[in-house]
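Researcher: Let's do a round of design. I'm pasting the structure tokens now; please hold your answer until I've finished.
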């Protein structure tokens, strides 16, 4: 966790109300490309119904799902961070190789 104080705006408003309002009013758009999605291994069974956790409905190019050890908060520390970095590096390396092959670098 960042262990930083909440922004001043949250002191004037009830955070629960602010977050719920944002949650209820957000309408995701369509994304034509693909998405790399990291989700924690230790989630409740309610998250197993849709492995993409809703992203599949918005992402037209497909969702690449990777399971990371631990829970949602653990994803920000070792060993989860290493797992994410290693998986993400393969996507970044593949993107670099494609650019080189078409001569755009």
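Researcher: That's everything. Go ahead.
Model: Designed sequence:
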């Amino acid at each position: 966790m960042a262990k930083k104080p909440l922004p001043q705006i949250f002191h004037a408003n009830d955070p629960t109300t602010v977050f719920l309002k944002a949650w209820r009013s957000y309408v995701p758009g369509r994304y034509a490309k693909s998405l790399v999605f990291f989700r924690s291994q230790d989630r409740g069974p309610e998250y197993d119904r849709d492995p993409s956790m809703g992203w599949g409905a918005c992402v037209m190019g497909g969702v690449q799902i990777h399971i990371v050890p631990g829970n949602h908060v653990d994803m920000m520390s070792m060993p989860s961070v290493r797992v994410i970095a290693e998986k993400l590096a393969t996507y970044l390396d593949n993107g670099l190789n494609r650019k080189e092959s078409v001569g755009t670098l």
